[in-house]
Amino acid sequence: MIKKWSILVALLFMLSPIEVLGKSLIPMGHSIGVQLEMPYVMVAQDVLLENSEWLKKGEHILKLNGEKVSQLEDIAGKGESFTLTVENGKQQRDINVSAHELVHLKPFLKSETDGIGTLTYIDPETMEYGALGHQIVDSTMKQPPKFNDGAIFEASISQVKKSTPGQPGYKISVVDKSQMPLGSVKTNDVYGIFGNWKQSLHDSLHPPLEIIHANELKKGKAQILTAIDGEEVNLFDIEIDKQTDNTFTFNVVDERLIKKTGGIVQGMSGSPIIQNNQFVGAVTHMFIEEPTKGAGILVIEMLKKSPY
């Protein structure tokens, strides 16, 4: 048991082979909550207003009574009525709403994107981290959101909905955003989120491990680090069965994990994979019709997408 610790942007540069040769990272496996603060207020779902006009899902609230709006807290003020300036990507329009209506409208608006995933690694030399293994896509926009700032927080798994063929499961997590963030979010890239780790280093199931290179990966036994109950990270057995360039597929063979989760579940993305005491990569996807089968990305590829 691991003790408690207090789940496309432009490519900035590519690490050279010399820079990654012999590099060691700490494999983590902890569940994290991710928060990205968007530079606008967005309508999260269709809303019918009192004047029979619609605010449509995905539209942006640009102004309130002519004053620029950039976060949800800006949707407030004194008076009997308000004018919202709304943009749908093609044109702008003004909508009049009452003070009562403005209050009841706020639950249908958002200025941030939240997600759950798994912390992949921490670089003990630079105190930078990588997580998730894939990009965060906003559920409303169905695309990666623009964001001004971001943070990751400690998450605790309260329940797991098991995966079954055709029905992906998921982790149900409690994220305490009242605590200090574990780190910042610098980029939201195709291979994960990256940023600065802001807390002290915490215990891991492994010391820093040397990263594996594409030609060193072998078919056969490996292990995944992930949390499926509270904040405890455990090792579970998998078998790597196929590699294509910098990605690979694997099968969950650990009966403990299959019994608890059915295999791979949402929220497990980013879970580190270890083989022969080397850091292989991270879980990225599951096969919906075959949930005991998953896909991963080599950690060396994640490093190439890091902004540092």
TrEMBL record:
<protein>
    <submittedName>
        <fullName>SpoIVB peptidase</fullName>
        <ecNumber>3.4.21.116</ecNumber>
    </submittedName>
</protein>
<feature type="domain" description="Peptidase S55">
    <location>
        <begin position="86"/>
        <end position="308"/>
    </location>
</feature>
<keyword id="KW-0378">Hydrolase</keyword>
<dbReference type="Pfam" id="PF05580">
    <property type="entry name" value="Peptidase_S55"/>
</dbReference>
<dbReference type="GO" id="GO:0016787">
    <property type="term" value="F:hydrolase activity"/>
</dbReference>
<dbReference type="InterPro" id="IPR008763">
    <property type="entry name" value="Peptidase_S55"/>
</dbReference>
